[in-house]
Design brief:
The protein is mainly alpha-helical. The protein is built from three helices and no strands. The chain has a domain of 34 residues. The protein is 82% helix and 0% strand. Helix 2 runs antiparallel to helix 3. The structure holds zinc ion. The site of zinc ion has 5 residues, from helix 2 and helix 3.
Length: 61
């Protein structure tokens, strides 16, 4: 976050960093909501959804 603020305003990379940060935050929020709903329905579904979310995160890391 601090690195983004250190980039000069108008720098082309700054806009990309901010969009990436916002997109990643929304992505992680939705992932958390999906896991929470899974656990609200049942423990076994929550565990299955957690594993599914972990596996879909692996290629992006
Ligand atoms: Zn995800």
């Amino acid at each position: 976050m601090v690195m983004i603020l250190m980039l000069p305003i108008g720098c082309a990379s700054r806009g990309l960093y901010i969009k990436n940060l916002i997109g990643d935050a929304i992505h992680n929020l939705i992932d958390g909501m999906i896991v929470a709903v899974g656990f609200l329905i049942s423990i076994s579904l929550g565990l299955a959804v957690t594993v599914a979310v972990l596996f879909h995160e692996l290629p992006s890391r």
